[in-house]
Design a protein that fits this description.
The complex is a heterodimer. Chain A is mainly β. Chain A is built from three helices and ten strands; from the N terminus they run E-E-E-E-E-H-E-E-E-E-E-H-H. In chain A, a hairpin with a 2-residue loop joins strand 9 and strand 10. In chain B, the strands form five sheets. In chain B, strands 14-18-19-17-16-15 form a six-stranded mixed beta sheet. In chain B, strands 6-8-9-11-10 form a five-stranded mixed beta sheet. In chain B, strands 20-12-13-22-21 form a five-stranded mixed beta sheet. Classes of the chains: A mainly beta, B alpha+beta. Chains A and B meet through strand 4, strand 5 and strand 7 of A and strand 21, strand 22 and helix 21 of B.
Chain lengths: 171, 698
């Protein structure tokens, strides 16, 4: 794909009206989130398990006195679980759920880069119908011949309404 | 320089609502026969500050309305007007109207303009109609007749008190301001000037007789004097056309007040519905006011703190800073022989930290009078409505409780007091028939007991009838006819959902929350509720609450590699059971015998799906006997770790409610531990594994 449509953050000052995205990898796939929603990155550390919670809820951690839930993004998206290692990172995100701002942590394999893109460069997410639910993904951009899927972080938080299609994939 | 006044509005509203509370309770306490000057004074002061505040912030209608009340109170205070029960009732209703006006301007919805007008007229009628003749002769009365058509100016007698200039008010400036309104004729009076040797330049001994020919409204003149009202003797009288200044006679005043109601400008005057015209159903409007009030309390989330508490906080912080600097000096060139001093310093630090924690918690503490203060009015209104004679006794109003608890305990208490009034206390005739004093008593008592708060609602009414309750419960199918229940268990039945003892649904009971909701609210606060009753003698509801919601005494327990916290308040004891104490029910349900009681065993590792638990059978670990919502059970854990105070953090802030968990806390090592919700765990355990799994994938 044409790589000059998307520039990396170094020359972000040359273009206006563009948003920045933090990209990270889950296996071979590349995902991105709006960088303004990221509050910090942490290495994976022990969390306290929440009893009877969905599989992808790894537990809660202490973020300077706040109790923050941590989700495994692989399991949340229905990608097979992979054991955590040195590079495993927890991204603390600010999400808006029912009018209040909440903090959640998501576990990803590794953080990649910061990406700049204008709204025009974002393509709609493909429709797989009932086979694969893609409502967590609100667009795609391509960078360096790689496709980056943009996550709708606010939807990550819909714990109670987990789409059963993904649960099926995870199992 | 312009100041954005709106930034002070919140404070003004808070103070005004507080003032209204003072007025209300003062009026209720007042006995028409024997009135203490100080009682009226307190009410007058409250009214006066509301008036001052509202005119400062431009809420002229409120200021006008309060002014009329104030005038009435002023006359009562000076003894120029007898305090009648009727006048007190009118004043009480005016307090309601005023509260509604304030709520309306603070954003609490539309105002019924007609109600305000009719109330205002009622006040004026009292003021003018049965006016004792005393007002005319002393000339220092503030009359309230609005400008009638035959008036072409105002006659103002202005006599400042000697200390007026000390408060920064200059009579000259006031006179100049008056001169701007029209043609002003000033006559000074120097008769009160002291001799030269006693002369103090900071005192004012002059007084003035002012005649102002103008078309302005009386209110405008009053506004000029609004800052000095307390510091002068003032009389404003209409100046008849071409005539000498005389006081209007009583009849004229009445007429003029009837034809020119001071119209409120900024309120949305909704057309009065037919039944709510002057002399409408007052109870209805009372209720509306109350509903409006409860609706309006939600947004203000500030807290007013006693300065003493802040001072003590500052003191402790000061100490803490000193200790900290001492410790850092010690650390800069530390040698081993200084170990003792280091230890002492650390001990001091620990002490200060604990004090700091306590002081900060103190700030959240409010006296329970915040909740109790609404009851005198409620009892007053309801006893009139029900035709019962009831005396309310409040004790322990100064018991302090956490702000959150105070806010949440209000509605359950209202419900319980209403119940006492409606079902508990008998009518005067019934009381006399059974040989009780005619006047029933309801006592509200709050006190500290064993690290918590106990609130009691006690009445000397008819008490609960266990037979009737049981019959009702059997009729409703809550218990079976062959069940044998203790008296206490029967009382517990009234907390069941859908259980109502009311034989008739009255206006007072049968509305709003039921007893089951009361109990749930109290349980949510970590408290418990119990009933004591004696048939024919009265009953008491006893509520136990934790001091604060933010900190809890907890027992840390371990299951497998996981650590949980059980609130100490729900733990009865911890025991190691012997095999012979354990029995099986239907091959699965485990129960054990504790003294004379059989209690179910809940294996925490099963309920929470914890892997690697060491104690898999009841005899291998420890059973923590806990109580929740009146039921007991034994929770199987691996071991007890220790007791500690934990700061409760919400799981819902960033996540969602978890069944069986009431919150989380952070342990000394920085890790998170979850706090068990005992009633929730009992429900989870009863739901069985299938349901738990269902919830998990739901």
């Amino acid at each position: 794909m044409d790589s000059d449509r998307v520039k990396y953050a170094d020359d972000r000052h040359t273009r206006a009206n563009q948003d920045e995205y933090l990209t990270f990898s889950l296996g071979t796939e590349e995902y991105g989130v709006d960088i303004l929603r990221v509050s910090e990155l942490r290495g994976w550390g022990a969390v306290t398990r929440i009893p009877n919670a969905p599989e992808y809820v790894k537990g809660v951690l202490n973020l300077r006195g706040n109790i923050v839930p941590v989700f495994d993004l692989r399991q949340r998206l229905g990608i097979p679980f992979r054991a955590y290692e040195k590079e495993t990172v927890v991204i603390i995100l600010r999400v808006v759920a029912s009018m209040t701002e909440k903090n959640i942590g998501v576990v990803v394999d590794a953080v990649s880069d910061v990406l700049c893109a204008t709204a025009a460069e974002i393509q709609p997410s493909p429709d797989f119908g009932a086979r694969l639910k893609t409502d967590l993904i609100n667009g795609m951009i391509s960078a360096n011949d790689k496709m980056v899927m943009l996550l709708d972080v606010d939807k990550l938080k819909n714990f109670s309404a987990i789409d059963s299609g993904m649960e099926g994939n995870a199992a | 320089m312009t100041i954005d006044m709106t930034q002070f509005h919140q404070v003004f509203f808070e103070e005004s609502f507080e003032g209204l509370g003072v007025m209300e309770s003062g009026l209720l306490d007042m006995d028409p026969g024997a009135v203490e000057a100080e009682e009226i004074n307190a009410i007058f002061r409250a009214a006066h500050s509301i008036k001052g505040g509202s005119s400062t912030f431009g809420f002229q209608d409120i200021a006008d309305f309060t002014h009329i009340m104030e005038t009435l109170l002023d006359e009562m205070r000076d003894g120029r007007r007898p305090v009648t029960g009727e006048a007190l009732e009118v004043l009480l209703r005016s307090v309601d109207v005023l509260r509604e006006m304030l709520t309306a301007v603070s954003g609490g919805g539309a105002l019924d303009g007609a109600l305000v007008l009719s109330q205002q007229r009622e006040l004026e009628e009292i003021l003018n109609g049965k006016n004792p003749a005393a007002t005319a002769d002393d000339g220092i009365d503030v009359c309230t007749e609005p400008a009638g058509p035959a008036v072409d100016g105002w006659h103002v007698v202005f006599r400042p008190l000697p200390n007026m200039m000390r408060t920064g008010n200059d009579p000259l400036r006031i006179i100049r301001e008056l001169a701007e309104l029209g043609e002003l004729e000033v006559k000074g009076d120097i008769s009160l000037l002291p001799g030269f040797e006693n002369f103090d330049p900071e005192e004012c001994h002059l007084s003035w007789d002012l005649r102002l020919r103008t078309a302005v409204e009386r209110a405008e003149i009053e506004e000029i004097f609004s800052w000095v009202e307390d510091e002068c003797e003032l009389a404003i009288m209409p100046l008849p056309v071409d005539g000498p200044a005389t006081f209007p006679d009583v009849d004229q005043g009445m007429e003029s007040s009837d034809v020119t109601p001071p119209q409120s400008a900024s309120f949305k005057a909704t057309p009065p519905s037919p039944e709510r015209r002057a002399g409408s159903d007052r109870r209805q409007s009372d209720r509306r006011v109350k509903e409006r009030r409860t609706a309006g309390t939600a947004p203000a989330n500030s807290i007013r703190v006693d300065t003493k508490k802040i001072d003590s906080l500052i003191n402790i912080v000061g100490e803490l800073v000193i200790t900290q600097s001492m410790l850092s000096m010690l650390g800069e060139n530390f040698r081993i022989e200084m170990l003792e001093r280091l230890r002492a310093g650390l001990g001091q630090m620990e002490r200060h930290t604990r004090e700091l924690q306590e002081s900060v918690m103190q700030i959240r503490m409010l006296p329970i009078s915040f909740t109790f203060s609404r009851f005198p009015r409620m009892v007053h209104d309801l006893s009139v409505q029900m035709g019962k004679k009831i005396e309310l006794k409040l004790t322990g109003e100064n018991t302090e409780l956490d702000k959150t608890v105070i806010e949440k305990i209000g509605d359950p208490l209202v419900h319980l007091v209403r119940n006492s009034l409606d079902h508990g206390i008998e009518t005067p005739a019934e009381r006399i028939a059974v040989g009780k004093p005619e006047i029933g008593t309801v006592e509200l008592n709050a006190c500290h007991k064993g690290g918590g708060i106990v609130i009691e609602i006690r009445d000397d009414g008819r008490g609960l009838d266990p037979d009737r309750i049981l019959a009702k419960a059997i009729e409703k199918g809550i218990v079976k006819a062959e069940d044998r229940l203790s008296e206490q268990q029967i009382y517990e039945l009234i907390f069941q959902a859908g259980f109502s003892m009311a034989e008739r649904v009255s206006d007072i009971s049968g509305r709003g929350v039921g007893m089951d909701v009361v109990r749930r609210n109290i349980n949510e606060l970590g408290g418990s509720i119990e009933i004591e009753s004696q048939l024919g003698r009265g009953s008491a509801i006893i509520i136990r609450l934790p001091l604060t919601l933010a900190i809890l005494d907890g027992q840390t327990i371990a299951v497998g590699s996981e650590v949980y916290i059980i609130p100490l308040i729900s733990i009865i004891e911890s025991i190691q059971v012997q095999p012979e104490m354990v029995n099986l029910v239907a091959g699965r349900g485990e129960i054990f015998k504790l003294r004379e009681e059989y209690l179910p065993i809940i294996r925490l590792h099963e309920v929470f799906c914890i892997e690697g638990a060491r104690a898999t059978g009841p005899t291998e670990g420890l059973l923590v006997v806990v109580e929740g919502e009146g039921r007991r059970c034994g929770i199987l854990v691996d071991e007890l770790i220790g007791q500690q105070q934990v700061v409760i953090k919400s799981l819902e802030a960033n996540y969602e409610r978890v069944d069986g968990i009431s919150g989380a806390t952070i342990l000394g090592d920085g890790s998170v531990a979850l706090i068990l919700d005992i009633p929730g765990i009992m429900r989870l355990a009863n739901a069985g594994p299938e349901l738990r799994l269902l919830q998990r994938t739901a």
